[in-house]
Automatic annotation (TrEMBL):
It is found in: Cell membrane. Keywords: Cell membrane, Membrane, Transmembrane, Transmembrane helix. Signal peptide: none annotated. This is ABC transporter permease.
Amino acid sequence: MGVIFRIAWKAIIGNPLRSALTVLGVVIGVAAVVALVMIGQGSTSNITKSLESLGTNLLTVGPNFGGRNQGGGGGIVRTGDRQSVTMKDVEAIQRQLGSQVAGIAPVSQGRYQIKYGKSNLNVQVTGTWPDYATVRNSAVDKGAFFSKADVDGRKRTAVIGYGIAQDLLTDVDPIGQKIKLGGISFTVVGVLPDKGDAGFANANYSVLIPLSTFQKRLSRSSPSNPTVSNIYIQGPDQKTLKDLQNTVTELMATQHEQTDPTSYDFQVQNQADALASINQVSQTLTLFLGGVAGISLLVGGIGIMNIMLVSVTERTREIGIRKALGAKPRDILTQFLTESVVLSVGGGLLGIAIGLGLANGVGKVLNITPVMSPSSMLLAFTFSVVVGVFFGYYPASRAAKLDPVDSLRYE
């Protein structure tokens, strides 16, 4: 076997350019599979961490702007629908389910100009309750969160995001400083930690103020029953979250005097369901892209077969001489099959190395941390070996069947 391997290796390195071009398809295929799977799993991990960082065991109650609803969103959008979740819903949940939940945080939101000195930014302003700090994982890094007394007294206190503190209040201690939101003066009582860049929901450029102040001073909602954008409810644990979702849905249906689940004007979303859906979509996309990349492995296998057929034709006299010296057909079959497998194995290993480098490079550009997947690497490598055996067998078999007399006469 050692002799056969040495002969195969000499044949491969004897034509380095042709050998390199032969394995190019395998290299590209394996590298693409490894890189795409790592980036895909990294994206899924980032999305999952981002959602979990916004709160755990979370239910979100909000208006349903769609058609059919089964406790979640979706359907055909009906224009003209109004906000349907109000403070009376919040009070009912707090009154009837207060002992069953870890926290409740209604929110109203809008974009406003924040001004400090001569500088200003356009930011997301959220009016909410003190429970928001725990429900949405928004404990302050400096200062303190506003209190229930601030909400009851409609105080003009504000908790600002890390980015706002860095950009607007660079050279001063933010705590105690006066800022203006929509032309109204607020006192900064706390600063949130750096949440990172979360795109459209960048918490570093958000301001939290008491809900009553937001409704009275900024949105100027109806004093009798003001609407809210969402109600965030934190369950005591993951096991009871589904039951709590059903209970909240029933309570909201009673509050809104609705009996048909397909026409609810509200929706109760479970964070766990949202995470599962996102993960499923991401995994499906990753598998699809990995499958597309796998096609190039098949193309690489065809390339190996074509070159091996050319090699058999070029080395017909060599085959005849070996057979004349006593080589058996299985020896010739093993030699050419070994060459094919060595090419595919080498291409697979090189592809894994390139895939790792490519994943890390793309991850830095897209700000994604690739997740190494040993199973995908093993699968891609195994597939490359199978490709080498499968597409190398026919040329090897053809070489083994050559007649030694005709081979020696071949020019």
